[in-house]
Design brief:
The N and C termini lie close together (11 Å). This protein folds into two domains: 5-75; 91-149, no CATH class. With 150 residues, the protein is an alpha+beta fold. It has three helices and six strands. Strand 1 and strand 2 (98-101) form a beta hairpin. A six-stranded mixed sheet has the order 3-4-2-1-6-5. This is 3-oxoacyl-ACP synthase. Residues 26-49 are annotated as: Disordered.
Length: 150
Amino acid sequence: MHGSKEEIHQKIIALLESQIQQAKHDLSLAKESRDSDTKSSAGDKYETGREMMQREMDKLSASVDIYQQQLIKINNINPGKSTNFITQGSLIVTNFETYYMAIGMGQMQIATETIYVISPESPLGALLMGKRVEDTVELRGRQINIKQLI
């Protein structure tokens, strides 16, 4: 038995919230480090260090933004909704893997099963959107048969 859509959905939300908190924490530490760094007699080295720290802070800030955007997207999906075609929030069982159509997160373990969390914008997600049970899509030479929609 596959993990319920609600279980998968909640695990994604928890993971995103954790990633947001970690990135915010890392950003705070980077700011502290930058602000406590004292200017040395080697001015160029000091400026290079500050520039590298600023780049790292920009990267962390961008990560926070991306995770927050993903959290908004996942919160707009109703995992309790059931349809007879693939849409956001569909749990798709195929002849190869099981996919949850939501956001691009990749592989996730739910109990003993591997679920691939994909976005509609991904190559596979775009092929699967709107398809129904018993439809087939081809990606990279693989014939992917849709066995079940949950």
